[in-house]
From TrEMBL:
The chain crosses the membrane at residues 373-397. This is Vacuolar protein sorting-associated protein 62. It holds the Pfam family Vps62. Keywords: Membrane, Signal, Transmembrane, Transmembrane helix. It comes from Cephalotrichum gorgonifer. GO terms for cellular component: fungal-type vacuole membrane. GO terms for biological process: protein targeting to vacuole. PANTHER family: PTHR48220, VACUOLAR PROTEIN SORTING-ASSOCIATED PROTEIN 62-RELATED (PTHR48220:SF1). Residues 1-27 form the signal peptide.
Length: 437
C-alpha cells in the first residue's frame, strides 16, 4: 500500500506540473485550445474491409473491460482505471498488461468494436486520438491514431509459397488458426504539414510502415482527404486496395468496405517534446475548452493487451518450424510510435531478426532462382562455381609446391654457384651513394 500511496502522490504532482507546463507551453507557442482547421480538412478517411470482424473500438471501454496483470497475476488495490489515471500503473514497470476480462476466443461483443454509419461516424465510441507535434513554426506533424480492441493475425492460407507448403505440410497444425493475434491494436497515419499545406503521409504497417509524398500517384483522395485502406483483421494501413505483402511472405487483404471518418469520433491533443507534455485540445468547431484532461493514458508505459499466453494455455499454439505464436503480447501505446522524427519515416530502421532476415533473402531469390525447375539450375550453377573455385585453389597450390620443389632441387644439384649468392649479398649491403660517386 505504501508503494500505491507513493504512486498516487507522484501522479498528483505530475498532473499539477503538466497543467503548469501546458499553460507555459501554450503561451510560448501561441497555441490556441482549438484544432487547426487544415488538420481536419486533410485528415485521412479509413476504408475498412467489407468482411472486417473487428471494428474500431472505444478506448475507454477497452480499459474498462480489462484488468492490469503482471506476470499473469492481477494487480489489486487499484482504483477504477480510465483515460485520466492509467499511468498509475507505471509504478509497477513497463511489463504491465491490460488483460481481457473475457476469453478472446469467445468473441465478446466489446472486442468486436463499433461499425461506422453511412456518414462515417462511429456512435457511442471514441476510437481515435489525433496528436499534433510542432517541429518548427512552419512544420507540423499530425498523427491520427486508430484503436481496435483486437488484432486478428493471418492464417496459414495468407502465407506465400513455398513457405505455405512448408508450414501447411505439418498434419499436426490446425490450418484454420490465425497466428500473431493480440488484444489491443494501435495503428496510425501521420501527415506532415508545412505552412498549413500537406507535404507527405506515413502509413503504419505492422512493425514497419511506408511514406509517400503528398502528390504521389499511389495516394487516392476524396475532397483532398487521403484514403487509408485498413487490412482485414490486422488493420495495417495501406494507400491502395488489393492484396498487400508484408514481412516478405504474408498477405494482407484490403478492399472498399465501410468508410470511417476518424475525426468525427476522436480526442485531440498537442504534444510538446521538450517537456514531454500532452495537452488536450478542443474538438474542431468547439466554442469552449475541453471539460476534461484525458491525457494519462498517453503516459502509460505498459501493454494494451494480454501478455503472450504460455505453452500450457490451451488457447496457445505454435507455427511449426518458425516458432510463431497464435497469441502474442499486446502493443504499446501512442507514446512509443516515434512521435519525434526528422523525416516521414522513423529515424532508425527496425533491426531484423535472423529468421526474418533469412526469410527475406529466401523469398527474394525464390521467384527467379528457387521456384520449380529453377532450383536445379541454381544448384547446378552453385555446384559448378564451387567446384571451379576448389579446382582453381588446388591447381594453384600444386604449382606453388612444384615451384618450391624445383628451387630446392636446383640448389641441391649445384646448378646455382655459391659465389652468386655472395655477390648478391654484397650488393644488398653496399650503399647506393657509393655508386653515384
Amino acid at each position: 500500500m505504501d508503494g500505491l500511496s507513493f504512486g498516487w502522490t507522484f501522479l498528483t504532482w505530475r498532473l499539477l506540473c503538466m497543467a503548469l507546463l501546458a499553460g507555459v507551453g501554450s503561451a510560448q507557442l501561441n497555441l490556441s485550445l482549438s484544432f487547426p482547421d487544415y488538420v481536419t480538412r486533410y485528415a485521412p478517411l479509413v476504408l475498412l474491409h467489407p468482411e472486417e470482424p473487428y471494428m474500431p473500438s472505444d478506448i475507454l471501454a477497452h480499459i474498462q473491460h480489462t484488468s492490469p496483470q503482471l506476470d499473469h497475476k492481477i494487480l489489486t488495490g487499484l482504483p477504477a482505471l480510465d483515460l485520466d489515471n492509467l499511468e498509475v500503473l507505471n509504478q509497477f514497470g513497463d511489463q504491465v498488461a491490460l488483460t481481457s476480462n473475457d476469453d478472446p476466443t469467445a468473441l465478446p461483443p466489446w472486442m468486436l468494436g463499433e461499425r461506422p454509419d453511412d456518414s462515417g461516424l462511429i456512435r457511442n465510441a471514441t476510437p481515435c486520438a489525433v496528436i499534433l507535434v510542432e517541429k518548427s513554426e512552419a512544420v507540423l506533424d499530425a498523427f491520427y491514431f486508430y484503436f481496435y480492441s483486437f488484432n486478428e493475425g493471418p492464417s496459414i492460407k495468407q502465407v506465400l509459397e513455398p513457405l505455405h507448403s512448408i508450414i501447411g505440410g505439418d498434419s499436426n497444425f490446425n490450418q484454420s488458426l490465425h497466428f500473431g493475434n493480440h488484444v489491443g491494436d494501435w495503428e496510425h497515419n501521420m501527415i506532415r504539414f508545412q505552412d498549413g499545406k500537406p507535404v507527405g503521409i506515413y502509413y503504419s504497417q505492422h512493425r514497419d510502415g511506408v511514406a509517400y509524398d503528398w502528390d504521389d500517384e499511389k495516394i487516392s483522395k476524396i475532397d483532398d482527404r487521403p484514403i487509408t485502406y485498413s487490412a482485414r483483421g490486422t488493420h495495417a494501413t495501406y494507400p491502395t486496395k488489393g492484396d498487400q505483402i508484408h514481412d516478405f511472405a504474408i498477405r494482407d487483404y484490403c478492399d472498399e468496405g465501410p468508410t470511417w471518418d476518424p475525426i468525427l469520433s476522436a480526442y485531440f491533443y498537442h504534444f510538446d517534446p521538450p517537456t514531454f507534455t500532452l495537452t488536450q485540445l478542443s474538438a474542431p468547431g468547439a466554442l469552449s475548452p475541453p471539460s476534461s484532461n484525458l491525457t494519462s493514458f498517453f503516459h502509460y508505459v505498459g501493454r494494451w493487451g494480454d501478455a503472450q499466453y504460455p505453452e500450457s494455455d490451451p488457447r496457445q499454439a505454435t507455427v511449426p518450424r518458425f516458432g510463431l505464436k497464435r497469441f502474442v503480447t499486446g502493443p504499446n501505446g501512442p507514446r512509443f510510435k516515434h512521435l519525434v522524427r526528422k523525416g516521414l519515416m522513423r529515424d532508425h530502421p527496425r533491426k531484423l531478426g535472423w529468421m526474418e532476415w533469412f526469410v527475406g533473402v529466401y523469398m527474394s531469390w525464390y521467384p527467379c532462382c528457387l521456384k520449380g525447375w529453377r532450383v536445379w539450375v541454381t544448384l547446378g550453377i552453385v555446384v559448378t562455381a564451387i567446384s571451379g573455385i576448389i579446382i582453381g585453389v588446388w591447381i594453384g597450390i600444386r604449382k606453388w609446391h612444384k615451384g618450391k620443389g624445383e628451387a630446392y632441387s636446383r640448389v641441391e644439384a649445384g646448378e646455382i654457384p655459391l659465389e652468386d649468392f655472395v655477390l648478391e649479398e654484397q650488393g644488398l649491403l653496399s650503399s647506393s651513394d657509393d655508386d653515384d660517386d
